[in-house]
Amino acid sequence: MLNHSVLEQKFIELYGGSSEGIRVFHAPGRVNLIGEHTDYNGGYVFPAALTFGTTMLLRPRSDRTLRLASLNFQAQAEASLDQLDFDPAHDWANYPKGVIVHLQQEGFVLGGADVLFHGEIPNGAGLSSSASIEVVTGYGFLAAAGHTDIDTVRLALTAQRAENQYMGVNCGIMDQFAVANGRENHALLLMCDTLEYKRVPFDSGAYRIVIGNTNKRRGLVDSAYNERRSQCEQAVQALQAAHPGLRLLGELTRSQYEASEQLIADPVVRKRARHVVEEIDRVLKSVDALQAGDLAAFGKLMIGSHESLRDLYEVTCRELDVMVEEALRIPGVLGSRMTGAGFGGCTVSLVHEDQVEPFIQTVGANYEQQTGLKADFYVCTIGDGVKEM
Ligand code: GLA
Question: Does 99 sit in the ligand 1 pocket, CB within 6 Å?
Answer without folding.
Answer: no
